[in-house]
Amino acid sequence: MRHPQVQPFTLVAGVPFGGLHVATAFSLHVKTPMIYIHPPGTVKEDLIEGNYVRGQSCLIIDDLITGGSSILETAAVLRDEGLVSHDAVTLIDRQEGGSAALKAMGINLVSILTLDQIANYLRYSGRIEVSDYERIRKYIQSRQGG
Predict the structure, then answer these.
(1) What DSSP assignment string belongs to the chain?
(2) Average of pLDDT values for 65-83?
(3) Structure confidence at residue 145 (pLDDT)
(4) Does 48 map to a domain?
(5) Digit-coded pLDDT (tens) for 1-14
(6) Structurally, how many domains does the chain consist of?
(7) 119 in a structural domain
(8) Which structural domain range is residue 51 located in?
(9) CATH classification of the domain holding 46
(10) At residue 97, does pLDDT exceed 80?
(11) Does the structure show a pLDDT above 90 at 70?
């Protein structure tokens, strides 16, 4: 790719729980090993499920991002175990500060869709009323501080 959106990676890291299915499908499609951290409260000797070597680079995958805490928690565990995470991919960005939170921690976010894009599609394809579209836009603006 001439202009890649993510840095090279050797592992896919799924975020429990929503991101595990998406990460599994992606991992199988691109033939790249997948790992995941055990959810909080589980009693496991190893924090990470899967095979890895310290120093490997992980692409973090989640289903959606709101404030970014799930991805940041995953990145912290990976980092503590000697793995590197430069990028995260989500299907949907709810545009509630997650992208900025990740950026502040040095993680690039790539979102397939944003809430704004979904609302625009629904509005201009006639699937929602103008009043609903305006309510969604106001909500997005209020969550972004604008």
Answers:
(1) --S-SS---SEEEEPTTHHHHHHHHHHHHHT--EEEEPPTT---SSSEES---TT-EEEEEEEEESSSHHHHHHHHHHHHTT-EEEEEEEEEE--SSHHHHHHHTT-EEEEEEEHHHHHHHHHHTTSS-HHHHHHHHHHHHHHTT-
(2) 96
(3) 60
(4) yes
(5) 567 899 999 999 99
(6) 1
(7) no
(8) 11-114
(9) 3.40.50.2020
(10) yes
(11) yes
